[in-house]
Amino acid sequence: xxxxxxxxxxxxxxxxxxxxxxxxxxxxxxxxxxxxxxxxxxxxxxxxxxxxxxxxxxxxxxxxxxxxxxxxxxxxxxxxxxxxxxxxxxxxxxxxxxxxxxxxxxxxxxxxxxxxxxxxxxxxxxxxxxxxxxxxxxxxxxxxxxxxxxxxxxxxxxxxxxxxxxxxxxxxxxxxxxxxxxxxxxxxxxxxxxxxxxxxxxxxxxxxxxxxxxxxxxxxxxxxxxxxxxxxxxxxxxxxxxxxxxxxxxxxxxxxxxxxxxxxxxxxxxxxxxxxxxxxxxxxxxxxxx
Length: 290
Description:
- InterPro entries: TrmB-like, Tscrpt_reg_TrmB_N, WH-like_DNA-bd_sf, WH_DNA-bd_sf.
- It comes from candidate division CPR3 bacterium GW2011_GWF2_35_18.
- This is Transcriptional regulator, TrmB.
- Residues 6-77 form the Transcription regulator TrmB N-terminal domain.
- The protein is α+β, with helices and mostly antiparallel strands.
- The chain is built from twelve helices and ten strands.
- The relative contact order is 0.10.
- The strands form two sheets. An eight-stranded mixed β-sheet has the order 3-9-8-7-4-5-6-10, sandwiched between helices. Strands 1-2 form a two-stranded antiparallel ribbon.
- The longest helix is centred in the first third of the chain and has 32 residues, at 79-110.
């Protein structure tokens, strides 16, 4: 422990050995330190010079043939902390000085480099573009999605139902599950019971959880996959799709998702059945029979 700590302080292996040995004596010499540590005397001379420059020992040097009589006195070990406190003050002062011109350095470094990618797709076709792209991309990597349960307004009822069935089939080929968190409200209950009535595999193809809090509102589907975000807005007058490649933004939203996931409750067959039958599905079945 002490050897590793002194190494982190900035001492080499030989410096550590010589320093620890010097602490055991009121006064010592290169000859005595060499004998005690097994380090060649010529090397010990260089080591004690370094320790002296680092402020850990004091030297009283002799010249010429009396060099071996150089006297070495270790300083009180509390000097280690004093040195660190001095470095901390120096580093704080240096940090403040660097902050003064750091923006200029960053301006030169970044210039007009593209470090994120934003692709905006307006209108219904734009929303469809991002939706279809996410169906294929979600097969390859884990996906974490905040989902409002997509309205049928974009694709129409028949096309939306067809897309959902295609997605269920694609999920069987996926390497990773899609985790989705949604608010629990009348709309999400409607979508879940409707799609479950069409195909009970719907709630098994995704790992879905819900938050039963009115404060939790989602107006877009936000999917995080690796460094990519795919956002689809299909509510009211805001119809668009957006693809963003940003490592830091993806990390931020993924961390928020994972915290939300932990407090959310699983969507299970029992839960969906407890909401009762879906009126739209019953009407569809009635019309098919008539």
